[in-house]
Design goal:
globular, 21 helices, mainly alpha, disordered C terminus
Length: 455
């Protein structure tokens, strides 16, 4: 195991500095993966009463932890300040996201909350640019795999020795589900699914590291399965199928790929209509609640709030205020004073920044889809393949869960890495005589099927 870890963490350049930074970076990355604190930091929420009356901990200790994490990130980013600033100027579409967040202070329900999170949003985007500048993509994938392995091992440690933190016990429905180091089982399932994707595309030379890949995939899949999160199960299965489909499509001529993609879209559309018309029967057949554990009721209530401020919303991260402000209507309806999440990424963003915010994010996302299609049709590298799979994860995970602009969230930061990375790869591929440079951040995929077959 130690040999495999060393072979993973030593980058291709053999830079000691990069190795040290990689280990230091895992601390903030783990904190960001937890989203709002580890399970052992929120033990009181892991009860039936605590889950209804409390939201994320806003204690002094959590504020100090957050400040320390962002200070560490600032120190790491400082040598790359010019490059990060250049990325903000070059990608004005992504840069417009924090601009809109700052502007929303003017109509926010809680202006100070919006101000703080707008600053954090800009910092998160800067951190995503830093990751792209600091690491070659293959090295970044290794770091993410190490974050995933630490999360899994730490989760197993809590599950076995401190089940009051590692095992969810908030209700009879979720009792026994594994949440590990994460504050909730669904978060555990989705985050680990996201951290699973790098294992399919990272390039290893050592046989020990290749064995580590297999162990890693098995352990992560086990944790996702034991999370008992139906949404995570569906997302994880869909991502695996998507990765396998990409591996097959990359070998095929472009015309055949286009035909298969159109056929697949048609099948998905037909399947979607069938599921919609027979949704209740389908849910009962798999032993699930047709309301998706109350989500449909939440969405109906929140849509009424959206219609009161459809264009601009209630301010960035300023909708949820417990029994204060507009969120009180839904909190009272659901008998959930500590409620603080819409259970849908698009709806959450619409509540915060309105239709304008959703449209702006959609422009960023659709540009990434265009860049992904462009790169995929031009002999994609493993880096591009990972970006595309990450883009697919963002899409699937935000159907019945997820957040699109969530600060201090590793998933959001990786989506920014995906958007910016695809933009960079697409721009480089359009430059004449730059094909070699375009692929130098990771090995080209001309022989990708052969290499992937050895995974």
């Amino acid at each position: 195991m130690a040999t495999a870890v060393r072979s993973m963490m030593i980058p291709a350049t053999q830079s000691v500095t990069t190795l040290v930074v990689s280990w230091v970076l895992m601390v903030p990355l783990l904190v960001f993966a937890s989203q709002w604190g580890f399970s052992f930091e929120h033990g009181t929420i892991n009860t039936a009463v605590g889950s209804l009356t409390q939201s994320a901990d806003d204690s002094l200790s959590m504020k100090l932890q957050s400040a320390l994490v962002y200070f560490t990130c600032a120190c790491l980013m400082l040598p790359f300040a010019r490059a990060i600033r250049a990325n903000f100027y070059k990608d004005m579409l992504v840069s417009s996201l924090p601009v809109l967040a700052f502007l929303s202070i003017a109509w926010s329900q809680f202006p100070m909350v919006t101000l703080v999170h707008a600053v954090l949003l800009a910092a998160n985007i800067a951190f995503a640019f830093y990751l792209l500048e600091r690491f070659k993509t293959n090295d970044l994938l290794k770091v993410l795999m190490m974050v995933g392995m630490v999360a899994v091992i730490g989760g197993l440690f809590l599950i076995v020795l401190f089940p009051q933190y590692g095992v969810q016990s908030r209700s009879s429905v979720t009792s026994g589900a594994w949440q590990g180091i994460f504050p909730q089982k669904n978060i555990s399932g989705f985050v680990l699914t996201n951290l699973l994707l790098p294992a399919f595309f990272v390039q290893f030379r050592s046989h020990y590291a290749k064995a580590f890949r297999i162990l890693y995939i098995g352990m992560v899949l086990g944790m996702v399965a034991m999370s008992r999160s139906a949404g995570a199960w569906v997302t994880c299965a869909a991502c695996i199928v998507f990765v396998l489909a990409m591996r097959g499509l990359v070998r095929m001529p472009h015309k055949e790929v286009a035909a298969i993609v159109f056929l697949f879209v048609g099948i998905v559309a037909i399947a979607g209509v069938c599921v919609y018309r027979n949704f209740d029967l389908l849910m009962y057949s798999i032993g699930k609640d047709p309301t998706l554990t109350g989500r449909t009721t939440i969405w109906s209530s929140l849509l009424a709030s959206v219609m009161k401020r459809p264009m601009l919303g209630y301010g960035y991260t300023a909708f949820w205020g417990g029994l204060q402000g507009e969120s009180a209507n839904t909190a009272v309806l659901m008998h959930w004073p500590g409620m603080g999440y819409a259970e849908n990424g698009v709806l959450e963003l619409c509540l915060e920044l309105g239709i304008i915010g959703v449209a702006l994010y959609l422009f960023v996302f659709l540009r990434a889809v265009k860049d992904a299609a462009h790169c995929f049709m031009r002999c994609p590298s493993p880096a591009v393949m990972w970006y595309i799979s990450s883009l697919f994860f963002v899409t699937v995970s935000n159907i019945e869960a997820g957040k699109l602009l969530s600060t201090s969230d590793l998933g959001f930061m990786l989506s920014l890495v995906t958007f910016a990375g695809l933009r960079r790869e697409a721009q480089l591929s359009r430059l004449p005589g730059r094909h070699q440079h375009h692929s130098e951040r990771m090995a080209p995929a001309n022989n990708l099927p052969e290499r992937m077959a050895r995974l």
